[in-house]
Amino acid sequence: MQEFIQLAAATIGSFGFAALFNIRGKKLIVATLGGFFAWAVYLLAAGFSKNPYLCGFVSSVMLTLYAECMARVYKTPVTVFLVAAAIPLIPGAALYRTMNCLMSQDWMEMRKESTYALLFAASMSAGITLTTLIFRAVWKRLYNQRRM
Length: 148
What we know:
It is built from six helices and no strands. It is mainly α. Helix 3 runs parallel beside helix 6 (about 105-145). The radius of gyration is 17 Å and the shape is globular. The N and C termini lie far apart (about 55 Å).
């Protein structure tokens, strides 16, 4: 039941950001489904590994593959799908706790929370960057082979 609530919240959050970014029509639905997909992969990865950074990395890789494919299907920039769908993965709670600890001058807890937030964001960034680089290199090679 808890996973269902998390998936619903991820979907609603992605929908809200997609609407905020003026994504319309079918692209709005695709971007929203990307957020659902990203969080579903995160939950699935969490079932296999207790390392949140690995889960964030795997989820970001799958999310980026999804965004790259949908961008080509809908002839739209990848960021349209990637940004809206990545919203559920952003470590907002850890960032909030970091700022809360900063304001209450709890330096040890702030260090722990900020380290978690930075490492999780780095794992997401690594997943997105590596996947984009590999996907585009493979896509370019396939495109060049098809032209000859």
